[in-house]
Amino acid sequence: xxxxxxxxxxxxADAHKYYHRSWLTPFFGANxxxxxxxxxxxxxxxxxxxxxxxxCLDKKKNDFAYCQPKVADFQxxxxxxxx
Length: 83
Known about the structure:
By secondary structure, the protein is mainly α. It has one domain (22-80). The protein has helices at 6-15, 45-59, 64-80. Helix 2 (45-59) runs antiparallel to helix 3 (64-80). It is flat and about 30 Å long.
């Protein structure tokens, strides 16, 4: 039998109340880059690197070792813009 705290359960439900997708959403959850037309706005420099990482992973069958330089560039960009 699982006993849950009602307040905790409510807090979990509220966690998704203000959820919104961003161009980082797919990077941290799926191996599919966000569609460009989803966000009619100026493209962030890291977003281009995000796409390059996905393309590399697709070409190399998700073998991270081959894509380390692109991932490193993406990580540097995230640090530079404090994301």
